[in-house]
Amino acid sequence: MTNSVKSELEKFFGNCEVISENKYRIHMGPSSAGYDLIFDLSGDNITVLNLISRVDDETIELIARKVFGTSQLIKYEVRDNSLKVFFMKAGRSDVSDVLGFIEEFFREFITSFPRKAWLILGELQFNLLGETITILSSKYNECLKTGWRGNIIAILREDNWIISNIGRDHVDLPVLTMTNGDIFAFAPNKYGDSLIPINLSEIIKELKTLVDALGISLIDVPKNEIELIHKFGSVISLIDSINMIDSEKRFSILTLNLEGKKLSELREIIRNLKEKLDAVGRLYTFDGMLRKKIALKLAVRFANELLSGESGVIVSNVRKVSRLGAGKAIYIGKEELKAIPLGEKVLVSVIEEKGRRKIVIEPI
After folding, report:
1. Helix, strand, or coil here: 83?
2. Residue (of 35, 45, 43, 46) closest to 8 by Cα position
3. Distance from the CA of 160 to the CA of which of 18, 99, 235, 311 falls in 20 to 30 A?
4. Ordered structural domains, the chain, with CATH
């Protein structure tokens, strides 16, 4: 039975250490940071100690009340920037239900308090085009799935390479790329009626072979696929220059004599490179159009969310802002209170949407 609980916890949290028959230790956050929580099945309850840690008590209280507050069988204690949760009358057969509440808790924490989640857990979460995407800090070594993370998980690295569970990518590479040892990009064929794969890694190898065979030591060949994208214009100029020299035309930068250097093989390499670079040229246009279409879809989605939010406005009034000690106060009238009653405390948040900041007041 211990093994089955351990397996379930390990699948949900990504790690689990057995302390005793009824106690399990789980590490939250990257291995070099974060904190440990304890999952305890002793007695008639399931107790989770240190469910969240190093977060101010008010934030913990707010999330706990929202997630656990409606259940009569869940009690919790917030103390010293830590949360202990008691799942009453729960045993081993109820572990899945308990994990469901924990999943909701962490999703709420990460989406409502992203800066704190990044500092404590080293992760963020976004919902884009119907996908839930989790971004992990560079302190993580792998894109590990947990019960609350999205289907797409990526590690944010300082060198702009994206390591994710759907493949390796780079911020500066075209949108449609895939890696399988070599890096491939997809571009329209010369007729524009289908997409063809372009092996960017192979282009670099062929460029180096060509330059070495010609004995050109001063030419700066792209070192990797990213440089190939950045220096595409220079690469095209290089191939055009070699073509001009081969046809016995003089060019000021290169003064080469191709006689005796296996001309047929070199010309075949040049011809293949020219075809592939022509495809890379089409790739630029295609990738630009693809990025615009993605941006447009995101803009339409954001516009729909914004407009649906505006259409949901129940009451809207202009109020005077008054000084109150070191801060300021606004009057909330009976018209607003009729729409949404307020208790003794409210949550005041400053949010930013599309470059515009707002103050949001929510009842607790």
Report:
1. strand
2. 46
3. 235
4. 2-112 (3.30.1460), 123-170 (no CATH), 179-307 (no CATH), 321-363 (no CATH)
Pairing of β 74-79 and β 46-49: unpaired
pLDDT in tens, the chain (364 residues): 568 999 999 999 999 999 998 999 999 999 889 999 999 998 889 999 999 999 999 999 999 999 998 788 999 999 999 999 999 988 888 999 999 999 999 999 999 999 999 999 999 999 887 889 999 999 999 999 999 999 999 998 888 888 899 888 888 888 878 777 788 888 888 888 888 888 899 888 888 888 777 776 656 788 888 888 888 888 888 777 777 665 654 443 444 444 554 667 777 788 888 888 888 888 888 888 888 888 888 777 777 766 665 555 666 677 788 888 888 888 888 878 888 888 888 888 888 765 677 888 888 7
Residue located via tokens 């690469």:
235
Find where tokens 């690295």 sit.
157
Q: Given phi > 0 = left and psi -120 to 50 = alpha, else beta, which region is 187?
A: beta
